[in-house]
Input
Amino acid sequence: MDREKSIEDLDGVRWPPPPADSTSLVRGVHELRKRPVKDLSVEDLRRLIGQDLGLRWLLPMALDFLRETAPDEAAIGWYDDDLLSAVLTRKEPAWRSSAEWARHLNETIAMLTDLSPYIQQEVDAFRTALSDPL
Output
């Protein structure tokens, strides 16, 4: 993937400008789709992934970030992360289209300790829904 390109460039779909009365979320997502993916922050990834946008390109980036930060988070002993939640709660077809992504996430989760009850519920649901490819 060329990280200099935006989600719009990568998926080849140009959205029209958002309606004038759009919410800040809608306006923000429109703007983020035009930004080069290399310039997306962790919060930007969370927002786009949470809206099921650009998953083909953004899930691998998010998974790599989560894997890189997992050892430090495990050392702290607490992990309650919005990006992790956004990734965990994607619908089953997103994971079934790439079983290696699901396994990557499952391995990263195994590195974490002391998950919040909310994140643990999402982990359990993820593992239950995808037990066969994991």
User: Anything to note?
Assistant: The chain has a mean pLDDT of 93. Residues 43 and 83 are 7 Å apart (CA to CA). DSSP finds eight helices and no strands in the chain. The first helix runs from residue 7 to 11.
